[in-house]
Amino acid sequence: MCQYIETIRVIDGCACNLAYHEQRMNRTRKEMLGLTEPLHIADLLKSVSLPMECSKLRFVYDKEGIHDITCTPYICKEINSLHLVYDNNISYPYKSTDRSALNELKKQQGDCDEILIVRDNHLTDTSYTNIALYDGEQWFTPSTPLLCGTMRQRLLDCGLLQEREIMVSDIPNYQYISLFNAMISLGEVILPVDKIK
Questions:
Q1: How many angstroms separate the Cα of 41 from the Cα of each of 6, 8, 15, 163?
Q2: Which H helix or E strand runs over 24?
Q3: What pLDDT digit, counting tens, does each position of 151-164 carry?
Q4: Which residue spans of the chain are classified as CATH 3.30.470.10?
Q5: pTM for the whole structure
Q6: 82-195: which CATH architecture?
Q7: DSSP state of 146
């Protein structure tokens, strides 16, 4: 059975970005599981004690509903280098428990801290984050992500990110790259682009 995941940042006892997570979950349920009745994450949270420290709330869902709910302290990985890996057939449009294609690409990481996946010479994502590049004035995120993350969508809606096509050959036009996802804010994990190998 296909299973999908939501990972939500909890800080000061509050679940962040909830509307975006709920929207993605219900879209996935409709498109992949054929379920049109929306679920409300807030209802689920009534039975979960949310800690005050920064934590990762994670749950799995499928045709049977929501299960495997965990809430654990979150520590951000230190990322100092990225390795470009190429796969023109990679596809990960839904946040699924099946990460086998991503895990295969991770094997090419070498001595770098993380991979940056390239599809048809376009930058996409790392194995676990969306990305944005800074040109000295503005942050841009690739218009070709593997997964349209909830934080990515929120940043686009707020005007803090602009979407554009970014090719491998465009990397020298930028100064910095930032990795971000539901747990990591834009600018929290940031590297000079010369750390992309």
A1: 10, 10, 10, 28
A2: helix 18-33
A3: 999 999 999 999 99
A4: 4-73
A5: 0.95
A6: Alpha-Beta Barrel (3.20)
A7: S
Integer angstrom CA distances of residue 13 from 50, 68, 71, 100: 5, 20, 11, 33
Burial class (CB in 10 A: 0-12, 13-18, 19+), 107: exposed
Residue 106 has pLDDT above 80, yes or no: yes
Q: The sheet that has 114-119: what strands, in order across it?
A: 82-86, 114-119, 122-126
Q: Which CATH class is domain 4-73?
A: alpha beta
- Phi, psi dihedral angles at 88 (to 5 degrees): -80, -5
Cα(167)–Cα(45) distance, integer angstroms: 41
Q: What is the layout of strands, in order, in the sheet containing 14-15?
A: 14-15, 4-11, 55-62, 65-73
Proportion of the chain above pLDDT 70, given as a percent: 100
pLDDT at 45 over 90: no
One-character DSSP codes across 148-192 = --HHHHHHHHHTS-EEE--BGGGGGG-SEEEEE-SSS-TTTEEEE
